[in-house]
Amino acid sequence: MGASAMRGRRAVFLDRDGVINHNVLNPATGELEAPLTAAEFKVLPGVPEALRSLQKAGYLLFVVSNQPNYAKGKSTLDELRAIDGKLQRELAAMRVEMAEMYYCRHHPEGVVPEYSVVCECRKPSPYFLRKAAREFGIDLGQSWMVGDRVTDVECGRAAGVRTALVGTSGMPCVEADWTGEDLAEAVEHILSVQVREDGNAQLC
Ligand SMILES: [Mg+2]
Ligand SMILES: [Zn+2]
Predict the structure, then answer these.
(1) For residue 4, what pLDDT is reported?
(2) 165: which residues sit within 8 A by CB, 6+ positions away?
(3) CA–centroid distance, residue 106 to ligand 2 (Å)
(4) Cys staple from 71: which of 4, 22, 110, 120, with CB 3.0 to 4.6 Å?
């Protein structure tokens, strides 16, 4: 058994909106936000190939996503479940398996009482990454968080994983280990780092 196998498995934790699927322009706020309906949920280009190459390289894949739209009264739980269902069908069609999909549906300032709480799972909390590490035997030091917001980077750093920030339109983020365009580019980087480090480890 090699050193890496003894240390635990590698994982990539993926934010959902803006990484796997398009954010959607909310005309009311002018902001890019999570889709509110399954019809609005569309996978970004290059995502199936990128996820399959991580899978092929032996990474466990997780979705870690804040979904406060029910708590905020902007969406129904059924609508959110329909979006989850569409993602699951799309992943199956891509032949990609997620080890787990973690959703925080809370918001500290929501309008639905039982979901409007200060919870322990909302990013930037590293709660779900630590839970995954315990339950799946993951080596966080060899793992990555990929997101499109600074809170994703903060979550990853708090958990001790490496961080990739996508969709920054070339704006570098000092907090992230890597910044770039999209998931496909991030995965290319993640795999190149692994090849380099595994190569170095063999030389020692
Ligand atoms: Mg996002
Ligand atoms: Zn939560």
Answers:
(1) 46
(2) 147, 148, 149, 150, 152, 153, 173, 175, 176, 178, 179, 180
(3) 4
(4) 110
Strand-pair category, 31-33 with 24-26:
antiparallel
- Tell me the CA–centroid distance for residue 118 and ligand 1, in Å: 20
Task: Dump strand ranges (E) for 123-169.
Answer: 144-147, 162-166
CATH number of 3-203: 3.40.50.1000
15 is catalytic: yes
Q: What is the DSSP track for 5-72? A: HHH-B-EEEE-SBTTTB--EEETTTTEEE--SSGGG--BPTTHHHHHHHHHHTT-EEEEEEE--TTTT
The more confidently predicted of residues 84 and 30 is 84
Amino acid at residue number 194 = Q
pTM above 0.85, yes or no: yes
Ligand (nearest to CA of 152) = 1
Task: Say how far apart CA 144 and CA 14 lie, in whole Å.
Answer: 8
Closest-approaching ligand to the CA atom of 18? 1
Domain spans of the chain, in order of start: 3-203
